[in-house]
Hints:
Elements: E1 7-9, H1 11-16, E2 26-28, H2 30-37, H3 42-51, E3 53-54, H4 59-72, H5 80-92, E4 95-97, H6 101-109, E5 114-115, E6 124-132, E7 138-139, E8 153-162
Parallel strand pairs: 1-2, 1-4, 2-3, 4-5
Antiparallel strand pairs: 6-7, 6-8
Helix pairs in contact: 4-5, 4-6
Zinc ion (ZN) binds next to loops.
Amino acid sequence: MVPVYRYVLDTSAILARKMNISSPEYVTTQSVMNEIRLGKIARLTDYSSGILAVMEPKPESVERVRMAASRTGDLAELSPTDIDVVALALDLNIGLISDDYAIQNVSRFLGIGTSGADLKEIGKEITWKYRCTGCGKVYARDVGNCSVCGHSLKRAVKSYKIVK
Ligand SMILES: [Zn+2]
């Protein structure tokens, strides 16, 4: 049976959404899986590795997303992982589930349907960190702009736990 994917999931969607990620509708990228692996609950990683389909976007789609993001002004807000998930949605011509505003914005520009991951809805607590889009310095809180180089900060998952 050939799986029919309907949505690409980004990191926030996998960690936050109250949904059955074992659904054959969902696919994600290796870079997202690597990001989750950095989290504190390896169990979820092992669990997701077994059941969630992983595909890589085509390099030309990655380039197309970069160009689109540069046009919409979102490029500085997007990590390589973010760009991967948008590029995969483009490749497969399917929707994308993400809570990231920059991802949603550039997806809309490219005609990709997006939906939020409903972060507040569920039994997973996420701790965020903030990484400078310029020099990469990591902050525990959103301090606005980097004190070293002045670039803006981008939110990233620091750790998460499942709440029963
Ligand atoms: Zn910086």
